[in-house]
């Protein structure tokens, strides 16, 4: 981290308990928070992906996204020529998205509470898969009905450099490295900040192989 934002939080960082880093006014990285859950989580994730496999989406502008996507929960995220939206059906199967597994929901709720957001009730879990070279360009998440709930993300597999910007696309970004098992909670005033992911570097993760999977839990409806 560098620049004015780093300076703002430098003192806080020194006073924080190990494993909880504040990266914004209402945003926290919980280092390794998901590690004790991984053995429960991975078989559930496999079941979800067997039912709704990863697919590469095409943006309304005609660009194929490099990260592949799936979802579970009452709502999933889709894109088509008409735009981006949350939908109760997987457009691939025309069936409801897989149910959000208990361990995933419990992990997200526990992490949100840890970051000061109790009563988080996620109804959507987006699952992004990055192979080396895949990235996510700077964007805001604006398709959720309300911005009062936080977003919780769980990083699995290869490391990523997360870019955390401001409220304008042109605002300076800070870089945050995210590793296997890290959980991030974004809420409140940080909820609409621009963010993205730098191209994933080549590598092989001992548990996840040559990929990064990111779960993001949201209250979308
Ligand atoms: C900060 N995914 O799916 S997770 C996304 O690593 C997305 O796959 C990235 O951005 C990934 O939309 C980053 C984190 C994330 C998600 C939503 C946010 C960070 C956020 C909303 C507001 C601020
Ligand atoms: Fe996002």
TrEMBL record:
InterPro entries: Alkb, AlkB-like, AlkB-like_sf, Oxoglu/Fe-dep_dioxygenase_dom. Its EC number is 1.14.11.33. It is an enzyme of class 1 (oxidoreductase). GO terms for biological process: DNA repair; oxidative RNA demethylation. Residues 121-221 form the Fe2OG dioxygenase domain. Fe cation binds at residues 139, 141, 195. Its cofactor is Fe(2+). Keywords: Dioxygenase, DNA damage, DNA repair, Iron, Metal-binding, Oxidoreductase. Binds 1 Fe(2+) ion per subunit. It catalyses: a methylated nucleobase within DNA + 2-oxoglutarate + O2 = a nucleobase within DNA + formaldehyde + succinate + CO2. One of its GO terms (molecular function) is ferrous iron binding. One of its GO terms (cellular component) is cytoplasm. Dioxygenase that repairs alkylated DNA and RNA containing 3-methylcytosine or 1-methyladenine by oxidative demethylation. Has highest activity towards 3-methylcytosine. Has lower activity towards alkylated DNA containing ethenoadenine, and no detectable activity towards 1-methylguanine or 3-methylthymine. Accepts double-stranded and single-stranded substrates. Requires molecular oxygen, alpha-ketoglutarate and iron. Provides extensive resistance to alkylating agents such as MMS and DMS (SN2 agents), but not to MMNG and MNU (SN1 agents). Belongs to the alkB family. PANTHER family: ALKYLATED DNA REPAIR PROTEIN ALKB-RELATED, NUCLEIC ACID DIOXYGENASE ALKBH1. This is Alpha-ketoglutarate-dependent dioxygenase AlkB.
């Amino acid at each position: 981290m560098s620049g004015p934002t780093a300076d703002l939080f430098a003192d806080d960082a020194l006073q924080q308990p190990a494993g909880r880093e504040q990266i914004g006014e209402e945003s926290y990285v919980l280092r390794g928070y998901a590690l004790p859950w991984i053995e429960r989580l991975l078989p559930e994730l496999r079941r979800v992906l067997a039912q709704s496999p990863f697919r590469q989406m095409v943006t309304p502008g005609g660009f194929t996204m490099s990260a592949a996507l799936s979802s579970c929960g009452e709502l999933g995220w889709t894109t088509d020529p008409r735009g981006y939206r949350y939908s109760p059906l997987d457009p691939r199967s025309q069936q409801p998205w897989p149910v959000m597994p208990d361990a995933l929901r419990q992990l997200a709720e526990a992490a949100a509470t840890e970051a000061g957001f109790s009563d988080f009730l996620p109804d959507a879990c987006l699952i992004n898969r990055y192979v080396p070279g895949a990235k996510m360009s700077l964007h805001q998440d604006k398709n959720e009905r309300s911005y009062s709930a936080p977003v919780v993300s769980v990083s699995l597999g290869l490391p990523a450099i997360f870019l955390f910007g401001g409220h304008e696309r042109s605002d300076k970004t800070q870089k945050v490295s995210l590793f296997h098992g890290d959980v991030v909670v974004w809420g409140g005033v940080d909820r609409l900040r621009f963010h993205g992911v730098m191209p994933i570097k080549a590598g092989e993760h001992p548990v996840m192989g040559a990929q990064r999977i990111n779960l993001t839990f949201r209250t979308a409806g």
